[in-house]
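[retry 2/3] WD repeat-containing protein 18: previous attempt timed out, resubmitting with same input.
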Amino acid sequence: MAAPMEVAVCTDSAAQLWSCVVWELHSGANLLTYRGGQAGPRGLALLNGEYLLAAQLGKNYISAWELQRKDQLQQKIMCPGPVTCLTTSPNGLYVVAGIAESIYLWEVSTGNLLVILNRHYQDVSCLKFTGDSSHFLSGGRDCLVLTWSLCSVLQVDPSRIPAPRHVWSQHTLPITDLHCGFGGPLARVATASLDQTVKLWEISSGELLLSILFDVGIMAVTMDLAEHHMFCGGSDGSIFQVDLCARPTQRERSFQPEQDPGKVFKGHRNQVTCLSVSTDGSVLLSGSHDETVRLWDVQSKQCIRTVALRGPVTNASILLAPVGMLSSDFRPSLPLPRFNKHLLGAEHGDEPRGGGLPLRLGRHQQNVLGGQDQLRVRVTELEDEVRNLRKVNRDLFDFSTRIITRPAK
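[retry 2/3] WD repeat-containing protein 18: success.
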């Protein structure tokens, strides 16, 4: 039996020749390309080894391709607004997307929108599932990282607002990336932020295990499968390797590149946007705003391959190639359904179920319905006002962030 093939899956913001390219990791040979749209950062996901999903940059839909569709026709999953980040559960049952400050969770088999979570105060920037699909994590521009139990979210009483299992608020600037290790509910989670720190957490207890301070903002973070090393991509193009098993262990420490230059990968000319490690931990893949994807030998810190793209790299990850990528006659087990944009029973214009309205309405009933129409209009006006206030708040937050993170002259 042949060994599993590792592939690199990459997207850039230009998408002149293709939306997504798949190439063999070690030879660099192109295997597949997918066309149609521009995938946004943290917006690429593999669904059940059968479909490739890409949240379109600044648009309110997700593109979906069958992995071996010859005619390359994409399906469009329409969403209530532009998708800022996207992930799928490893068991292939759920799709989760960040839309503004809300988190939308769909069931793949039916396309039903199961729940909308509203616990972030700014745009959601990244989403990750645990390996057993029991939990997912969300990071936002509001500096918060939330841990959600999928079971609790789906079984919550409709009269109650779903609550996260953990709220991690120790970061002081927007969250840029998340990485979830192995172990399901016992996994460790790495969070990166513009506040120049990377923090390591434990899902089971919610405790902070480690906090590392760097000289630059951290834009991407990942770990090898054994979780011996953590790799952190900086806003200056450097990639830092942190040894998690080094002693003595301190909960808070600073990374000093001048004291340990053998732990820094140098080659990118602009900020690193994404990182991924091979299964055996020997190779690191990085993408950058300098429009290149680089493959590094972890032990020597040398770049062994550079692939030039047509725009800033938005996604780059190493995957074990699913059967659908390698078999030309592969077809998905089930077609994707139409994904609903509204919760069940909450579509605009739907009347309450359970009894319904009488077929003939008296004057009093007509007055009641008129009052309901006025209430509906008033609610719409208030929702518009809330959206405007959120936009003003978001603009003020972005302005403050730019001032705080502006390099000193």
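[retry 2/3] WD repeat-containing protein 18: Helices lie at 150-155, 323-326, 363-405.
[retry 2/3] clearing retry counter.
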